[in-house]
Design a protein that fits this description.
seven-stranded mixed β-sheet; mainly beta
Amino acid sequence: QVRLAESGGGLVQAGGSLQLSCVASGRIFGINDMGWYRQAPGSQRELVAVITRGGSPDYTDSVKGRFTISRDSAKKTVWLQMSSLKPDDTGTYYCKADISTGYQRRNVFWGEGTQVTVSS
């Protein structure tokens, strides 16, 4: 079984910073794209940032210049460094990974989420 475990969420004042971590474990042959999504109450889950296996990042417009996604494939870990946080960044942040679990076996896995609350 593959599991994604997020950590690093919490309560922070506007303008502050947080770093989220996501570690993958289990029967993993390789990890392709890894990403972070978030969901605010009453809203749909949205993409925040994604990073390819080769390390190329992409961000939703609202976080460009404030958030940085990075990964260490050997450690099966992806991070999201969040700076200059705004109340609109509040939500549950989910890690997502496209993982190869065997020969021609590839699935998308989600973590259980970590709460980020930004106070004004």
